[in-house]
């Protein structure tokens, strides 16, 4: 079928999370504050890591990349919602929707791969400490991040191209505040079997691989930690993983319940749940890593004091 015949709609309508004007106004200010905190918090993390030589290690290199990805996740979704509220519009063009979807898939999956890289770093530091410096070289860290970017971009491109082949007819209202792939796919008036199949195969592999590697890493970490002779040693070893485990639980807890099932079952509850990893998690990550990490707290304090003095 010709592309012009396939795609009848030229734009979509983003209904948002609430219908009432008062609720939408509250959500606007909430999203604005959250976005501001997310960008400032993650930028501070990146600056502290870049300027403090003591943080030039694999763990903080991955954390800096995670902060960048978190800024991107929020920047893909929140600004469009804020702009639409200001101009009193709910529309997003077909092209904008596809572009937003592409970058959303890229950056969300990048979060997962970076969390996997960080779990491997923790595994090497706790289970293979004598080999840590020889294995976790700067070249390997850069390679892991580069491979993650390539995989996530190719995965996003595949899903966006498949979405572009679907037909969208009369109904163009998306019950969401951004072009969530599942919400958009549910609007299609053509057969989504191939697209759903790719979600469960390729998409499942891209999702399950980092999650499985994280789980395996922590199985080895916990088994080694439990062999330590003192309670103090166990607490010290686990303290280095506490922040990472908190972020992993928050991130994967929301995604597992939303995306590992057919798009036809997508509901309003799932719409609200996506706020956790698209809005809340990127905002909380800087606090989680800074409050539970002494070196990071010291670096942030030094950075803030330096800027105040200057």
With strands numbered from the N-terminus, the spatial order across the biggest sheet is 2-1-3
Put simply, the count of helices is 11
Determine the mean pLDDT.
84
Regions with little confidence, pLDDT below 50 for 5+ residues: 1-7
The secondary-structure class comes to mainly alpha
Number of strands: 3
Question: Could you list some keywords that capture this structure?
Answer:
3-stranded mixed sheet, mainly alpha, globular, 3 strands, 310 residues
Quick structural summary:
With 310 residues, the protein is an all-alpha fold.
Please give the structural blueprint.
Layout: H1 3-6, E1 11-14, H2 21-51, H3 58-86, E2 91-93, H4 94-127, H5 132-135, H6 138-164, E3 173-174, H7 181-187, H8 193-225, H9 231-259, H10 268-291, H11 294-309
Parallel strand pairs: 1-3
Antiparallel strand pairs: 1-2
Task: Give a verbal description of the structure.
With 310 residues, this protein is an all-alpha fold. It has 11 helices and 3 strands; from the N terminus they run H-E-H-H-E-H-H-H-E-H-H-H-H-H. It has helices at residues 3-6, 21-51, 58-86, 94-127, 132-135, 138-164, 181-187, 193-225, 231-259, 268-291, 294-309, and strands at residues 11-14, 91-93, 173-174. Strands 2-1-3 form a 3-stranded mixed sheet. The longest helix has 34 residues, at 94-127. The relative contact order is 0.14. The model is unreliable at 1-7 (pLDDT under 50).
